[in-house]
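Input/output pair, single chain:
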Amino acid sequence: MEAKKIDDLVFKKLNELRDRIAANIKSTNSSASGMSSQSMVITREQTRQTLSARPFFATLETGRRPGKMPPISKMLEFLAARQIQMEGVSNLKRAWGTAINISKFGTKLFQKGGRKDIYTNEIEKFKTEIYKEVKDALILIVKDELKR
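Output:
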C-alpha cells in the first residue's frame, strides 16, 4: 500500500511537470501547431514512470543546428501553422528557402545559443520537489511502521 502512495505521488508530480512545460511552450509561442505539447505522454510501468515526448522535442530549447536539410513537408506545415506568407512567393518556394537556410545556418534559436525556459528549469524544479516529497512520504511510512 505504501508503495502505491509513492507511485501516485510521482504520477501527480509528473502530471504537474507536463502541465508546466505545456504552459511554457504556449506562453513563449514556441510551438506553431501545438503538437509538441500534445506529444508529451506519461507512461506507468510496474516500477517506473516516464514522461516522454516526440522526437526532436529538445529543439524547443536548443533550436536546430545546421546540417541536413529539414523535410520540406515539415516546413510547409510550419508555414501553414504560423500563417506565414510572402506576396509573390509560393509556399513551396518559401519552404525550400527556409529549409536551405536552416541547413546552412541553423535556426535563429540555435544561432542565439538556445534557451532554458521551456523544460530545463522545470525539470530541475521537479527534481528538487520530488526528492523532498518522496523523502517526506518515506519518513511518514517508516514512522507508521515503527508505531506498529
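The two ends are 15 Å apart (CA to CA). The longest strand covers residues 41-44.
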